[in-house]
Amino acid sequence: PAGLAARASHAAFAAATVGGGLLTCLLNLFATSKVKLLSGATVAAIVAMSLLHSQRPASDAQNSPGALAATALAQATDENNPATGDTVAAPGDGIVPSSTTVASSSNRLVLKIVAADSGQPISSVELDYWLWGSGENIQRKPLHATRFGECDVPVPRDTVTRLILVSQADGFADTLLEWRPDRGETIPQDYTLRVARSAPIGGLVVDADGWPVAGAKVGFNNRTDPASETRPQSDNFGWPFWITATTDAQGRWRIDRIAKGAIRTLDGGASHPDHVRAEAVDVNGASEAEAKLLAGTFVYKLGRAVIVRGSVVEADGRSVPGAKITVGYVGEVRSRETTSFADGSFSVGGCKPGKNLLSAEAKGFAPTTLDVELVDNSEPFTLTLQRGSLLRLRVVDQAGLPVAKASVWLNPFHHGPVDPTGKKPSPVQTEFNRDTDAEGRLEWDGAPKGEMRFDVSASGYMRVSDVQLRADGQEHTITLQPALTISGTVRDAATGQLIPRFRIITGWPNWDPVNNTTNARWSNIDRFWLSFDGGKFRHVYEEPMLGGTRNPGFMFKFEADGYAPFVTRPVQADEGEVQFDIALKADAATSVTVFQPDGQPAANADVGLVSLGAGLRLVPGGFLRANVQSGGSLLATDAQGRFTLPPDDAVTLIIAAHPTGYAEVPPATLTAEPVIRLQPWGRLEGKYLAGGEPASGRSLLFACQQGDRRTVSSDFTAYQVKTDDAGQFAFPQVPPGTHKLVELVPEKSQPGRKAWSHVPLTDVGIRPGETTTITVGQ
């Protein structure tokens, strides 16, 4: 075929120059040649060559006749080349340019984007492009791939520390690529991005009366699980990306850019300027919501809004034009903003009725905030602005030296429980985030009176939160301690060789008062899961693991494929530089398959790895996926029902949960036979009597046998029911085994909070696939 291609391209194009058509010339060539038999692949290649000649400019050196013919023939004779007919590329774009198009410059990445199932190029893909380097991040305008599915990505290799790309194309899943050169990862010269087909989702947006709303915005982010992340490519698009759609005239919307496996991780809502934003729906643990999204029948219901009117004046009553008005919390998605008119009046629609915040700020004045009760046709409000007070502060290190460019942020949110009496004023709502000067000083002459709370952070220092200050004209000093830096090596314990790829999971020590032990609690936030290449690591921690509380310190887990994990000692936040030389022992992971009760593989089943501090929450049909559990303790099976069980001695039990069944298995059992067979869920129903009469309105909780929220427990909300007027209750999907039925008795508590006493009623035995009926209170 290669020799034929050379002869065909030379003879045919020579003939074409004197007026003959290319296809005619090729046929004439065949008639006069000694070719006795042409394979189907060769014929297809020559037809492709003729099409390419008719659609590509002859001046393109990369698309010369010989190069195109060779490429066509190479693809046509490749046994791994999928069947034709895929419509992912425009007509005539089925040939991927050869590797000779790779740029010679080292400061770019040549990205080829193809369909994962067919290998065909995807044309005109948009790429969201984020680059970090030299201490700052840059978001460029979206990059665009060619009709051949190729894109040149600028990569300043001398300065880049992090690169993120997210592909966007209808019919395909938004796919994230990430490299971290600052952690030893190398950004390649070229990369083939294989993008999965998406699963369309959709639905309807209606107003408070059920009428369709046109022009509403629907948007989704996804709550990623760092334990399931793959590098450099992932279907979890995550922060800072959103996938959005706008409803049509009938209020309908559709999104076709999310992988089916990522739908269960979605978190999103709907909004419109004239309505109150619909309640955000977290698809995690809500199988009904997932099913409706996939069926295109999910309904977002917007709330009924009110219009807020009023005026902004100075203390002497003069109007303040151009004042910024905010209804709600600054930066919150439900807030509404406007600007006062020349006479100081304002009007803003789409506001949430009930208790709310109303704020105003203008240059030369201190911002002010009122706690208001909003109803339809509320009387106009008057916001009076006072001259600002002077706040002076200085940020220093532990030696008393100034910290320049320290960021000082005013926290505008409530602290602690809400005061239902309304006597405690809400925090003033304004956006304040400024840096200190070379002397570590900062002044704000427009500060409001009263107590304010700030967060202070700076490069190389540990962030401090909840710093309480008043604008009294005196200089307040804030002292920052050095950041915690860990560094070292990770080696094979037997050979001493550096392990080429590993990750560090960051957590904190968690004291267990029941067992009188200190257990590690691992973060679910992706920035605390660090991947490194090259066997060495160095990382600076500038924030505590828990906010709003005293810094509990840090713990670190080192993991690598083919090795047992290693957990470090607790590390205090003020230890400065800490060196670790980690030796991991070889130990293979186990591939386990989960089967449904009918023998079919259990795809997308939840798998809980029970250990001290795991904090797993069982819900009907699975586990709660709201990042309440310790990081890495909740896995999921793939499309074939498989998951990888890590060699971790801390795991004492494996629980598999799926809409069709439930099972508990000790780790040792899976070593001998790596199979989990689910049993059908049971059902619990019954009647509650008090004094021999049906007791209505009683709150009951189904408590699974572990009953320890530090390891695994039934979710407080999902497994709570109330008895009806006949005293009857039902839990339609409960796990087999011996469990407890508990009554929840409300207690007095702090304002703005709720508390219950858990009163055990009886033990209940649940059999797989059967209904257990009980009567309590006799």
Describe the structure.
- It is a single chain.
- By secondary structure, this protein is mostly beta strands.
- Helix content is 9%, strand content 40%.
- It contains six helices and 56 strands.
- Strands 2, 3, 4, 6, 7 and 11 form a six-stranded antiparallel β-sheet that branches. Strands 32, 33, 34, 36 and 37 form a five-stranded antiparallel β-sheet that branches. A four-stranded antiparallel β-sheet has the order 12-10-14-15, with no helix packed on it.
- A hairpin with an 8-residue loop joins strand 18 (324-327) and strand 19 (336-339).
- The model is unreliable at 1-104 (pLDDT under 50).
Runs in which pLDDT lies below 50 for 5 or more consecutive residues are: 1-104
Q: How many beta-strand elements?
A: 56
Radius of gyration: 32 Å
User: What is the mean predicted local confidence, pLDDT?
Assistant: 84
Helix content: under 10%
List the SSEs and their pairings.
Layout: H1 2-16, H2 22-32, H3 40-55, H4 65-76, E1 108-115, E2 126-133, E3 136-139, E4 143-144, E5 150-154, E6 160-168, E7 175-179, E8 190-195, E9 201-206, E10 217-222, E11 233-234, E12 243-246, E13 252-255, E14 266-271, E15 281-282, H5 287-295, E16 298-301, E17 306-314, E18 324-327, E19 336-339, E20 345-351, E21 354-361, E22 368-374, E23 381-385, E24 389-396, E25 407-410, E26 433-435, E27 441-447, E28 451-457, E29 464-470, E30 475-479, E31 484-492, E32 501-512, E33 517-522, E34 529-533, E35 536-541, E36 555-559, E37 566-567, E38 577-584, E39 590-595, E40 606-610, E41 616-619, E42 622-623, E43 634-636, E44 642-645, E45 653-658, E46 661-665, H6 667-672, E47 675-677, E48 682-690, E49 693-694, E50 699-703, E51 712-714, E52 720-722, E53 728-734, E54 737-747, E55 755-766, E56 771-776
Parallel strand pairs: 1-8, 9-16, 17-23, 24-30, 31-38, 39-47, 41-51, 48-56
Antiparallel strand pairs: 1-5, 2-3, 2-4, 2-6, 6-7, 7-11, 9-13, 10-12, 10-14, 14-15, 17-20, 18-19, 18-21, 21-22, 24-27, 25-26, 25-28, 28-29, 31-35, 32-33, 32-34, 32-36, 36-37, 39-44, 40-43, 40-45, 41-42, 45-46, 48-49, 48-53, 50-52, 50-54, 54-55
